[in-house]
Amino acid sequence: MLIGGACAALTAALPSPAAAQAITMKERVVLGSFNMCWEGEEGKNLTADLRENGFTLAPQATNNLYFRQEGDTTLLFGFYFGKDKLGRSEAYCAVTALKPQIVSPWTPKGAILPAFDQLLDRIIASAATMGPGYRTIQVRQPIADQPGMRRTLLHANDGTHGRIIFIDESPTFYEFGYYNAHASIIKDPDMWKDLVQPATRNAKQMMVDDKWEAAFCSLNPHNCLTKEQQRQQEIAAAQARQRSSGSTTLPFSGIGGIRSGDNRSNQQRLNDKAWWENYHRCGRGKC
User: Fold this and answer.
1) What is the DSSP letter of 257?
2) Inter-CA distances, 218 with 106, 120, 222, 243, 248, Å
3) pTM of the entire structure?
4) In the chain, which end has fewer C-beta atoms inside a 10 angstrom radius, N or C?
């Protein structure tokens, strides 16, 4: 299945041709990921669908985590379909959009999702017409205990089960999530502690940074240090710090670690004085 085909549900409410042009492939992948999640929830082979749509299993992944590269943006898709502690069905999918955050002159500077505003409007408008209809609980509201982050939250309830769509945004990432569980779980405020875990997102960011750095250094080895070169630089820097922390006395100059004034020892001054007196009387030879 092509990403364009998977977008059918969330692209139905397209406001205008201008808005259609504003959505880039990065945003279309996000839309398509929601629809692949819902199709997987209904029994379709989600793993095969992800691979068909350009996703690859993440390096060293220990669970269902896949990624797709779109320019400088990495889109990671994770999912879980199973049962809660009481044996009730539940489903969870999350798409995290990231870009390298390494501090360097060469790190990509473009937007993670250049058409995020249009994407958010599309999700809110389309979700309102799906099934029982998602109610908008909040739009881009600051998250109290996470400075710099904002959350959009949509909620639907069919009586037994509750469903939420959430969109978290910050200067360094976007995260889109869907969760379907028993209504009592959806209403539990502690649900977010398990649903959104910063440590997991940080691990994803490290993967993106490492992947970009490896690719960049492979193409631009002259701008990168090998581990051995980095070790040698650290040794040289440590030696330089050690030298600068002590005093090095140069004959007759008075110049040393203090940088100004005469830092010679008293014995050194006496030796210098004797040398000069002998020099003035006899030249370079001793009298």
Assistant:
1) T
2) 14, 36, 9, 36, 43
3) 0.74
4) C
